Amino acid sequence: MGRSGVRGERSRPDSHAEQAGGAGESGWDESLYEDAPEVDGTGADPEPADRRRRARRRAGSRPKRRRRRILRWTAGVLAVLVLGTAGAGYLYYRHLNGNIKTDKLNLGDKRAAEPTPNAAGQTPLNILLIGSDSRNSKENLKLGGHKASVGAPPLADVQMLLHLSADRSNMSVVSMPRDTLAQLPKCTDPETGKVYEATVSRQMVNTSLARGGPGCTVATWEQLTGIHIDHFMMVDFSGVVSMADAIGGVPVCVDANVYSRNSQGEGSGLKLEKGTTYVKGEQALQWLRTRHGFEDGSDIARAKAQHMYMSSMVRELRKNATFSHPNRLRSLAEEATKALHVDEGLNTVKKLYDLSNELKKPSPGRITMTTMPFVYVGARVAPKEGAAEALFRLVRDDVALDGKDKKKKAEDEVSDDPAAADAEIAVQVRNGTRTATLAAVPGRASAVAQVLTGKGFTQTVADQAQSQIEDETVIRYPSADLEGDAQAVAKSLGIPLSSVKKSTDVTGVTLVVGADWRTGNAYPKKSVDEDKVLDKEQTQNGADDSKCMKVEQGYSW
């Protein structure tokens, strides 16, 4: 109620209204002034008729004061309700936090180098998605496997690296087949303290999960790819089912009727009619697990089907999981926090929510999903020499797999900083040729330093300190005024400018000779065209909803 609520009563200065603490929108209480004598400007008492008019006005103001008291009471009740709701929200928030299971991010004793921030100071995000085949619960055993699997260490049967670009414009998803052969790193179980030594022979990468937990799978990826991983998210069979139900189903497509079961009883049990079906619950899990029945019946075909599912799921979440569907959001939050096993950096709902806001920034059209280039080794696979490394390099260098930002990056490569004369550039050369399985090449830093000196960089010196591990040759510089000098060194040796990195770990221009240059005076040319590292058959755009999985011969009904 304002000052003008009762006609004829004098107004008060705004400054007084602001200071008063009574009722009304103005902040002051008119009742404080009800009995004050009115003054006509002459100092005389008002006439009796004036008193009668004031009495009538006071009588008329009582219902207004009563209404003000009711408003005060209502406001108090509303305040209690708001506080109560906030308390319930806080309790529910604590409940959701309590659902989240966490583990240490990396169980290895080495980490891949963190990416260099872009010009705007942004860095990419790399998240490893892991699907566990654990049968160590009644729910999981019911959904797949047999009783003999109970108690056995779980395997990481689904492994996908999700790379979100530094500027958040695009996303790349790279799958690694579960039966990829690689040397596994040393890992220490954070609960038992058991140490799993690095393997000498190559093992299937899905066994990394049994060497202390998901942090060993992270360490395996970092060792194999050189990509720094920021987070992991792991889900088991029952988690996939519950989350698919919470989403409301995901549309998938097959080009013929399919039944994933053969005469030996092998297969996921997936049974779908030709065309598009919304799968959820156990059927969604069957889709993600199906190998027998898709294309050539391999893990490669299974990865392709998983990409199709993920693309559809992203589109469904964008379409349905909005604040106009609060019940679905609540259900998704409940099931997601129960289903997910994450690293300690994602241990609250707020952190997961903040991450989800980052992940939804790229449009589906800028999401590219692919499988690591591979070659068959008997019944298993191994990273394809050259091609797999080229793909990992694109991810490390934050180059979009859809090719839409390559032109821009090429333009950004050349520094505006003018280089000094070659003879005036001080260069330190280090030996980084050691690998997880190979000793460093003796004298490698001195050999390359001599090459540089012969090219006119007479202030080059070899660092005789202990060798380090560097998968690829890199040139680092500490500040912008040395970028031109570092690029001059790269050009003289034929090293790509993308390998010139700003780093506070060095005090001057520093060349680290990597494992990719263990012999010879000339830097080895890359034999793989990076534009051709993606297998079109194994690559999918997130906006493409026209593809259907091909049904394997003998699995149609």
What does this structure look like?
The protein is of the alpha/beta class and 557 residues long. Helix content is 33%, strand content 16%. It has helices spanning 14-19, 48-99, 138-143, 214-225, 237-247, 282-289, 299-320, 326-339, 349-359, 387-396, 406-413, 444-454, 483-493, and strands at residues 101-103, 125-132, 156-164, 171-175, 181-182, 187-188, 195-196, 203-204, 231-235, 250-254, 258-259, 271-272, 275-279, 341-343, 367-371, 374-377, 380-383, 427-431, 460-462, 474-477, 500-502, 509-513, 540-541. An eight-stranded mixed beta sheet has the order 1-14-9-2-3-4-15-23, with helices on both faces. A five-stranded mixed beta sheet has the order 19-18-22-20-21, with helices on one face. A hairpin with a 6-residue loop joins strand 3 and strand 4 (171-175). Helix 2 runs parallel beside helix 8 (326-339), helix 5 packs across helix 6 (282-289) and helix 5 packs antiparallel against helix 8 (326-339).
What is the topology?
Layout: H1 14-19, H2 48-99, E1 101-103, E2 125-132, H3 138-143, E3 156-164, E4 171-175, E5 181-182, E6 187-188, E7 195-196, E8 203-204, H4 214-225, E9 231-235, H5 237-247, E10 250-254, E11 258-259, E12 271-272, E13 275-279, H6 282-289, H7 299-320, H8 326-339, E14 341-343, H9 349-359, E15 367-371, E16 374-377, E17 380-383, H10 387-396, H11 406-413, E18 427-431, H12 444-454, E19 460-462, E20 474-477, H13 483-493, E21 500-502, E22 509-513, E23 540-541
Parallel strand pairs: 1-14, 2-9, 4-15, 18-19, 18-22, 20-21
Antiparallel strand pairs: 2-3, 3-4, 5-8, 6-7, 9-14, 10-13, 11-12, 15-23, 16-17, 20-22
Helix pairs in contact: 2-8, 5-6, 5-8
